[in-house]
Amino acid sequence: MHEDKRRTGSEVTGRVEPRADDNAWLPSTCALCYASCSILAHRVNGVVVKIEGNPESEVGKGHLCGKGPCGIMTHYDPNRLSKPLRRTNPEKGIGVDPGWKEISWDEALDEIAERLKQIHADDPRKLFVMRTTTVTALHIPAFAFNAAFGTPNASAAGGGLHCGNGAHLVGGIMHASWSIVPDFQHCNYAVYFGASKGNAAGHAACSNMTMCADARARGMKMVVVDPFSNQAGASADEWVPIRVGTDAALALTMANVLVNELGAYDAAYLKAKTNAPYLIGPDQRYVRDPESGKPLVWDTSANAAAPFDAVSAADMAILGQFAVDGTTCRPAFDLIKEHLKSFPLERGEEITTIPAETIHRLATEFATEARIGSTIVIDGVTVPYRPVAAIAFRGSQGHKNSAYNMLAIDLLNHLVGCADVAGGCLGFNPACHGHPETGRLEYAPHPDPDGLMIVGSWMGPHAPYPVRDPAKPRRVGLQELFPMSMGSVFQASSDQEEMWSKFDLPYRPEMMINLGANQIMSVGNKDDVAASLKRFKFIVSFDIFMTETSEFADIVLPDRGYLEAVDSRSNFPFIFSLPAGMGEWCWPIRQPAVEPEGDRRLAADVLIELADRVGVLGDLNAAYNAWLDLRPPYRLDTTRRYAYDEICDVDLKDKFGPDKGLDWFKEHGLIKWPKKPEEVYWRAFIDVRVPIYWEWMSDTWEKSSAIAKDHGLEIPKEFYSPLVNWLPCASHECERPGFDFYAFYYRDTLHSNSLTMENAWLDEAAQLDPFSYAIAINAEAGRTRGLKTGDTIRVENESGRSVEGKVRLTEAIHPEALGIGACAGHWAAALPTAQGKGVFFNNLLELDWEHSSPSNLTLDLCVKVTVSKVDSTG
Amino acid sequence: MQRATGPDESAKLWYDSSSRRNAQRTPTRESVEAHDRSTGTTNGTVTVRIGLFGFLSTFAADNPVVAKLPEGFTLRDAIEALCAECGPDCRSYIEDAPGLLAQGFRIFLNGSLTDELDVPVEVDGTSAELEVILVMANEAG
Ligand code: SF4
Fold it and tell me: Residue A246 in contact with residue A340, Cβ under 8 Å?
């Protein structure tokens, strides 16, 4: 019956009001993870009774993961917050009862606005705003509020440090996209390095799962390189167990085989689409044309150097040594080719533990399957065809060598010319010709003066390239000094005061607005995060549950959940979670399926109210105009107040025309139009190059190092070499006896961040899953230490921080690895389902400069640990 | 491929979409960073009202800042006038380096977001309305 209704669409409606015969399917968007799959919520007499995937949508392609349908249990959880609360106990700490009392919204907003006014008058930078990746409706409202208030200090708990600081950076610089994925429709051979795209969580999760399953049925071979054979490895053709944190060494060893043994590289691609031909001088910089300042290449037809854009790409040398005005220089590719020789098979094996013959075979298969030089006709358009892809995401780049771990893997794609071509490694929709009726949403990568690619669309103002010059930091995260960083450890690190003092930060954060994040669980060890939270004089937390972090708040405001919320762009920009590959552009919205319960209010509306009370409403409207790129006649008037659904309405009309406002979208759920091959396989149609040689790194290091040195901080130079490299984490250098496991965590498919542990259905499923709440250790390695499945063990890092949990012995994990699922181990009393379930891995993470990437501030997420048995349950 | 299994059919596609001899397709640094005053007239002046929003508003004694600029002015001229009025601290948030605007800097000309900083502003009448704001956010996650 439900199927029939959706087929005809006759009862898909935007009505929210319950009525006697209320029985409707409402198109909306899941928010249990950032994949933002399109859903249909079935409401009967005002109650959501079922959630299914919306088959009309490209986002999820009609499917949901196991979490999606369980959203009902989060929505109707009796432990949801429904009233504003104020603490009565001024003492804050883990396990300290805040003494909550209910207050009215007016009381709450009066107090918060008063605090905000004081901060705003004093120094707006003293406000710190924390958000999360699961409450996606708050993306734009949070950014707009920050801009209006005037604070540059914001972060995304967990996501900022544990997600893709390196993956997004490299995705942006090399693919103009937030992430990368195989072109499932045409790829024949995909190598996954610490990624689960198409098999578990992540960007476009359910769309990718559908596409990946089809690809596997079609015959795509999937090789998974990972310390743990979980969701991706289990469904692969081949699982290649690797020592934790050594993916770059494997990729560079494979690249060495490709380039120096097989000669398997796409010379035409390298000449035309990368900086491979740019001449590099002895100072590691480009040799530039004195007149135009442009990088020089060697023109083989004229036997002379010339600016890169004055030479036919076919005539550019990528190998050799040349003299330009008396200076000896070499094309960037020539240097890379030589550099790769420092990764012979034996060294690759020594670092990664993967047998040399396996590495050689993988490289040979990758080269053979790449079909370098071939083309294919798609929808009447001829495009290059390279049906191989090397992809990576959170796992492989969550290390000290974050950016270069990612770049080393992506280098494989650029060597064989499979970047953003049919069958290859695609960014998520980096080029869009715009909506056919309005022309809006048109964007594309474009070149900088050096011919290198600048993204056409990005998640924020900090475009990944060109990399800005380092400067003395003014933000609490010190990002100005580390211009390739997106998140920063210093928002909660143990050494934050030391660093702020070193760099003479002229203020200290005093107030925090927390938008649904649970950073005490999602960032690192709880003691350091708790200490950082206690430093705030005042915290207001918008939340749906009383989490461990909200327990540190002074005022907690009950937010609406995603089934009660509206959002005009639940899936924009397209570089984030719209599936890559051919298909359709798709813009869905989120709309309330039910009226909010209790006194819950939409955080976006509360932020508008606060902006009004603080006196920055005009600034907020200007910020919305900027963030949403609203154009006349739809731009917001800076002199009046709007409700958030009015803003959503003008956002939609501005992009899709006056007849396609919020009401239209509530009825239809989404709008779609076909993609063109020139958009999907844009690389062959847009004149941009990408840097396989990161020339700016020497300059960036010299400048940041000079500033840092003046303030007593050494920045290690090796992380700033222009040549991509593998560098060890602290865990690889730990030599303490007994510390013989590399601990890491992985994203469990049954849970998102720390949010879903409280979901009763998901908890039940996770309890049935042998790994969700367990500590995975290799069977042989465990047995030799006297461990068996079910034993309770203590896992301890070098500083003595520890977690406990039950062991699961398995053949599916590297002998040196110790894997912990999800972000579990809640202790908050108001989360009774979640409390005590699973293992709190993050407590093993040190939060400081020493454990962060010196180039992009990503937190090193692998830890050397020792294991001891607590008891045995037999 | 250096060891292609067949003819290299994709090379033409790569080369055709790349820079060629004598085709100066990419902008020079000068064209990006320098002012181009060669077009537009300089007779008469235009009253330019520059509204500051968000953090930038903390630098303005009077908001909007009003500047008199010659006809044919560019947005870069207007930004220069704004920085001169609001002081070096304000400039340090608007520019990452001389002539290089901060990534979060946004400017609206008569209500429309624009990044054409070096094009003479066409004015309908004798005044123009500008709005500027820094969009500041973390992008992580
Ligand atoms: S992948 Fe994420 S957005 Fe999609 S159904 Fe699952 S939890 Fe919801």
Answer: no
